[in-house]
Amino acid sequence: MIKDCCNPCGYIIDLLPLSIRKWNCPSCNSHNLRDYNSSLNILAVGQTVFACGLSQ
């Protein structure tokens, strides 16, 4: 089980089994595909690091 973050609203869902590939966000009701949603989250972090730099 892992945590997942809804890309549209940022809601963090706890303890989502890896067998669940699609889920609906309880906060904004968006339909999320696990791999696609994760790729959008990784892209957002990469863009933030590129724009702001990596602080140490």
What does the model show?
With 56 residues, the chain is an alpha+beta fold. Helices cover 34% and strands 27% of the residues. It has a two-stranded antiparallel ribbon. Strands 3-4 form a two-stranded antiparallel sheet. Strand 1 and strand 2 form a beta hairpin. It is elongated and about 35 Å long. The protein starts with a strand and ends with a helix. 5% of the residues are buried. The mean pLDDT is 89.
- Tell me the number of strands: 4
Query: Strand portion, in percent?
Result: 25-35%
What does the overall shape look like? elongated
Q: How would you state the average pLDDT, rounded?
A: 89
Percent helix, as a range, is 25-40%
Q: How far is the N terminus from the C terminus?
A: 30 Å
| Count of alpha/pi helices | 1
Low-confidence stretches: none
Structural class, from secondary structure content? alpha+beta
> What is the radius of gyration computed over CA atoms, rounded to a whole number of angstroms?
13 Å
Largest sheet: 2 strands, antiparallel
- Strand order in the largest sheet: 1-2
Q: Summarize the helix and strand pattern as letters.
A: EEEEH
Can you tag this structure with a few keywords?
alpha+beta, two-stranded antiparallel ribbon
Short note summarizing the structure:
The chain is an alpha+beta fold. The chain has one helix spanning 34-52; strands at 2-5, 12-16, 22-24, 31-33.
Secondary structure: elements and pairs:
Layout (H helix, E strand, L loop, with lengths): L1 E4 L6 E5 L5 E3 L6 E3 H19 L4
Antiparallel strand pairs: 1-2, 3-4
